Amino acid sequence: MSLFDLTGKTAIVTGACGLIGRKHCEALAQAGANVVVADLNAEACAAVAAELPGGIHLPLAVNVTDPASLASARDQILAQFGHIDVLVNNAAINDMFENPALAADLSKFENFPLATFQQVLEVNVTGVFLAAQVFGTPMAQQGHGSIINVASTYGLVGPDQSIYRNEAGEQTFYKSPSYPMTKGAVVNFTRYLAAYWGKDGVRVNTLSPGGVENSQDEFFIKQYSAKTPLGRMAAATDYQGAVVFLASDASAYMTGANLVVDGGWTAI
């Protein structure tokens, strides 16, 4: 089990205060890493860091779309730990509309707002690019590191819009074009970085999770689960093993790959 040991490693998780981000932090801490809990809200980061087991954990307010914010975080991390070993590029925007009554209409491709599309693109693609550039460069300089870019099954296959249809046959929501488009970009950006930094000992892989059950409408959970060979949506903890695997020497000869953990969703 020493292959999975991250003792003494410094691991950064962006979007660390979200549902899955918290579990990424927890898993890395349990494996022995010193975890940098990075998200927009400083108080939320501090609360997550305080709950992590073992190690020295650093909460940092970070905006992944702001190069200055990322550079400041990098400098603080290097000042405290001296090295950066793991980056989990987890920060992302998923489909959200403030008014549920308008969600079905605004989420249609024909009506999807340009401003919303650009915001998702800025976080899901530009944010991944910038975080990898800022935190990955010290990895390349030291000759080792692991970058884990979090994508999605919707970066691999098109959304099944029928699962967003309720029992009355009403389309409550359409999975938007922005999320699948940006997550598909993340998958190929991983390949680019793996080829670029392989000579410097930096491994870059994608983790593509399936949908996580999180108080969605009952009809949606039922329909999503019915399309999944394992018969259920994911729990937030279902990706912890994958994150530790990709961060650690257990995946030492793995780079440029896409680890799909989706209950079989993309298998059929």
UniProtKB/TrEMBL annotation:
GO molecular function, one term: oxidoreductase activity, acting on the CH-OH group of donors, NAD or NADP as acceptor
Domain of life: Bacteria
A Pfam family the protein falls into: adh_short_C2
Cross-referenced InterPro entries: NAD(P)-bd_dom_sf (IPR036291), SDR_fam (IPR002347)
Keywords: Oxidoreductase
Family under the similarity heading: Belongs to the short-chain dehydrogenases/reductases (SDR) family.
Protein name stated in the entry: SDR family oxidoreductase
